[in-house]
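Task: sequence in, structure out. Protein: Leucine rich repeat containing 38b.
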Amino acid sequence: MLPCVCWLHTILVLLSSALWTLGENCPAICLCPDPHTVDCSGRGLTRLPEEIPLDIRRLLLADNWIPRIPSDFLVLYSDLVYLDLRNNSLSHIEPGTLSTSSRLVFLDLGSNNLTEIPKGTFGETRSLIKLRLGNNPYLSNVNEDAFLGLTSLRELELERNALSTLKVGALKQLPSLRVVRLEGNPWVCNCNFTNLFEWLMENSHKLPNGVEGIECSLPMDGRQVSLTQLSMDSFRECQATLTLRDLLIIIFSGISVSVVAIMTSFFLASTVHCFQRWSKGTKGDEEETEE
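Result:
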């Protein structure tokens, strides 16, 4: 009986020691259900908590009032794989902030105040599999290279934002993409939407609700229509429409050609003039020689 009691006592001591260590490393305002998880959800935080264990793997910060993430925040947390910042007050993410976490698999930035996703926001976080950016009511701009380097990303959520257009190159740079959510945005079915529309029709299997769940407004009267009511023929006129960039290229090319033509004419005229003067000089010398 005594050996059993000693064995049980040893287990209780080890368990108590582990719990004491866990509680000691856990931020005072947060919960730590296991040694590698810190849960600070719904704590009314206005900044990131201090004294977060360096070996943390899951950090839950949803439903707070956090306005920014320090650019060097993730430098020390190389083991972090799960970061939940949903429903905070984030207005922007400094480029490079998230690229320092090489093992990050899940990132939730939904329900914040983000206005744009610039190039370099995620660096080349090749381990990232799921990225949530939905429900940002002011998010109206996603750079074409915003997701460059996210070669393992399988799920991308961009639903219910303020996107009226999106360059299709941003999606084509995601070779592992399996699911993308784009519904609930104020898409405008103009010529800028043509390439995205074509991509959506070809990749409708990646949309949870298919193209039926996406609507856009017609540029003429603002009427909302489902993408199922449109086809590539709806954008036929766009193929002959010159964009501002095209016009600038044409104007610049015309100016360049004109400048080259003027310089060429000036060079030829100068050459002819010099040749004439040389001819007259040669003729004069010959006449003096005959005399």
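Residues 1-23 have pLDDT under 50 and may be disordered.
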